[in-house]
Amino acid sequence: MPAPIRLRELIRTIRTARTQAEEREMIQKECAAIRSSFREEDNTYRCRNVAKLLYMHMLGYPAHFGQLECLKLIASQKFTDKRIGYLGAMLLLDERQDVHLLMTNCIKNDLNHSTQYVQGLALCTLGCMGSSEMCRDLAGEVEKLLKTSNSYLRKKAALCAVHVIRKVPELMEMFLPATKNLLNEKNHGVLHTSVVLLTEMCERSPDMLAHFRKVSLVPQLVRILKNLIMSGYSPEHDVSGISDPFLQVRILRLLRILGRNDDDSSEAMNDILAQVATNTETSKNVGNAILYETVLTIMDIKSESGLRVLAINILGRFLLNNDKNIRYVALTSLLKTVQTDHNAVQRHRSTIVDCLKDLDVSIKRRAMELSFALVNGNNVRGMMKELLYFLDSCEPEFKADCASGIFLAAEKYAPSKRWHIDTIMRVLTTAGSYVRDDAVPNLIQLITNSVEMHAYTVQRLYKAILGDYSQQPLVQVASWCIGEYGDLLVSGQCEEEEPIQVTEDEVLDILESVLISNMSASVTRGYALTAIMKLSTRFTCTVNRIKKVVSIYGSSIDVELQQRAVEYNALFKKYDHMRPALLERMPVMEKATTNGPTEIVQTNGETEPAALETKPPSTGLQPTSQANDLLDLLGGNDITPVIPTAPSSKPASAGGELLDLLGDLNLPGSPVSAPAPQISQPPFLLDGLSSQPLFNDIAAGIPSITAYSKNGLKIDFTFERSNTNPSVTVITIQASNSTELDMTDFVFQAAVPKTFQLQLLSPSSSVIPAFNSGTITQVIKVLNPQKQQLRMRIKLTYNHKGSAMQDLAEVNNFPPQSWQ
């Protein structure tokens, strides 16, 4: 049989292929020749054939038939054969295949070989693909090589020991004696691998971490790091003018682990961290990598305040870097530290705001989140001006989050009611179609409560919707205000700005235009028709025109609009004497709770919030087989699903979904498709815009609870009680996400026994930001007339990391103050 072609010739031949089919043909032909050689037990060219097979494997072609040939090469006495054999084993074998167990004896023999390079090959292979069984069998040999004086073998043995520890953590103590002298080695390769091994041991075992703290590992690491910083030019280790940056980064990571929650260790490393932060060159990316690791270490240990300010200033300098990755890393790091070092981050506010103009969408989003975290009472005017400018020019995917953040910040830090109203109107004008559902009632309540601003507000809103009905929330608010305060608009009583001259007919023209506009939604038309009806008691010369408009819509194909018009016609004809009293101006509405997270977020450096008392969570997914037991806990078949008051994105015809709120809770004998029980609505279920609110005072002393904490999702309950109706409890839920990715499409549902009545208001958002950088809030109102102990079942659904998540939990640990 002729000698097979060399690897170099095969590569050259394959590269001449012009098409994929031609390449496949060449590969198949060569594979056939290799198989024939293997069948003939050709020892002369086995090494060359396996090398060619590995190249084909790297191109993506099957090469599994060469596995046993690799084992034969490993058993060979020639170094060139062993080298290809071990390389083939690392590429073609893994612990899922039993063939790899046949290597154990060969690897053991080679670990005790007289040639260091053969020992190195065995160590590399074991550290790459050794299974737990192999690691148990060969850990003793690895530990012996870790104590040898040969630095070439020690560095390979250290990395192999890392793999052994990952596969068999209980063998960790075997390597503890060998670690004592590892950091005294001068060879940088041994130092690097030793730090990796120590880091792995500290991360995997609290006992090991405590041991290394006791044996003064920190001073040794500090000494090595100081030598690296102060050492002169060393061509062997120099990278862009910095001595061995890879070792410096590894040492900084290990220091971070050792200093976390440990005062003595943190104190010992403060000085060296300051030296690294001040002496590292920032003109090259290598220096920036070391500085970033230094910042992470400073922020994670119990460092001095001056050192933390230095770390934040480094991140501030990163924001000026031309590299987008460095800017993104800086913004993400500042977002994590803004609550603990708010004032230091505030110094870089102008640079952060400039990042809002960046072309990179990832940097824009991080800059927007950080900008909202920096807003406080002192800078709210300037920050809102920048954020409103950003809202004008940003991409559509940013507008919803930006508008929501502006609403919350304005509600919390507004310097005056006029500024507050102007800001929200500006948002509605700019991004009205992107705002949350509760934006309209919140603004209406704000306007109602600002008695002195009524004339100014109605004039501004009237001018804002002239000829433009595209922003539906703005048109709804404007319609409501014109209906309430149309007399002030016509009389021209505005003192804050120059009044405009408007007639009654011009006002009605605008509202009629809203009614017939193609851009008007059904809800908007309802607002406009109600406003026209209210104006019948505010205007004197156009009552007949109003009657005509109302009567026209008595035959509208829109059932909601038709019902309103028929009822308003009845007011004109049968109850005209009651009309002025029924349509009188709305009283001032007091607000007891906020749908936004303004009462639980940090106060951005102005005052420290009171710590919330939490109790152990009562969570856990309940299997279907335990459904009856769970029903017993909630009072047998008295369970009542809750119908949220917020508009649903699902079809109204899907009535079965009301019963499916807690899917597995249907009792035997209860039809799944049965309609939800009709319950009489208590007074608090009435629209807040048409009755006095019941919640006036926040009850003090009711501790909050953690209702759910699992898979990075945490649900906290805070409580409020009403003075006017002690049977009503208001629960505000705050959902936070500690994972590294956002949770989307979040839906919170709840059910209580029939002796209670429950209302679920709309949530502040459907996306829970990652890294606890924001929360979703939602309000639950519970009527408990019999003062029974409160019990609740909750159902959570959301998407995370591309998967749909769902969980059920019971909440039985409500504080007595919340229901007694």
From TrEMBL:
Keywords: Coated pit, Cytoplasm, Cytoplasmic vesicle, Golgi apparatus, Membrane, Protein transport, Transport. GO terms for biological process: intracellular protein transport; vesicle-mediated transport. Its main location: cytoplasm. The keyword Transport applies. Residues 599-621 are annotated as: Disordered. Signal peptide: none annotated. SMART domains: Alpha_adaptinC2. Residues 700-815 form the GAE domain. GO terms for cellular component: AP-1 adaptor complex; clathrin-coated pit; perinuclear region of cytoplasm. It comes from the Eukaryota. It is a peripheral membrane protein. Subunit of clathrin-associated adaptor protein complex 1 that plays a role in protein sorting in the late-Golgi/trans-Golgi network (TGN) and/or endosomes. The AP complexes mediate both the recruitment of clathrin to membranes and the recognition of sorting signals within the cytosolic tails of transmembrane cargo molecules. Belongs to the adaptor complexes large subunit family. This is AP-1 complex subunit gamma.
